[in-house]
Amino acid sequence: MPPSRFSVRHQDRGTRVAITVVGDIDLTTAPLVRGALARCLPARTVDVDLTGIGFRDVSSLNVFVAAAEAIGRTGAVLRLHRPPDSLVRVVRITGCALHLSSPRPAGEGRGEALPSPLAG
């Protein structure tokens, strides 16, 4: 059972969907994140705010990579906003196909998008 501090909020904005994750992402909570991401289609852009995440294990990376593949097959894009520095490092080291904004507070610039080998 997920801890009471964990939440996934889903906001449908037409062709865009915003997801906000708060709490730890691990083997227990990863299916909840996966489910929220699966409900995003047919959106063209899926924005995931990671400002509120704490601990995350490899299951979080697996969820985001699988979602990026599934969403990318429809021509849509998954973007992770304000990821923690540790997630940015893991994505760079592994060469995962994720689009990340840089780990900075909202309103401090657009961030960066990492190349996505799965999109091609």
TrEMBL record:
<dbReference type="InterPro" id="IPR058548">
    <property type="entry name" value="MlaB-like_STAS"/>
</dbReference>
<dbReference type="InterPro" id="IPR036513">
    <property type="entry name" value="STAS_dom_sf"/>
</dbReference>
<dbReference type="InterPro" id="IPR002645">
    <property type="entry name" value="STAS_dom"/>
</dbReference>
<feature type="region of interest" description="Disordered">
    <location>
        <begin position="101"/>
        <end position="120"/>
    </location>
</feature>
<feature type="domain" description="STAS">
    <location>
        <begin position="17"/>
        <end position="95"/>
    </location>
</feature>
<dbReference type="Pfam" id="PF13466">
    <property type="entry name" value="STAS_2"/>
</dbReference>
<protein>
    <recommendedName>
        <fullName>STAS domain-containing protein</fullName>
    </recommendedName>
</protein>
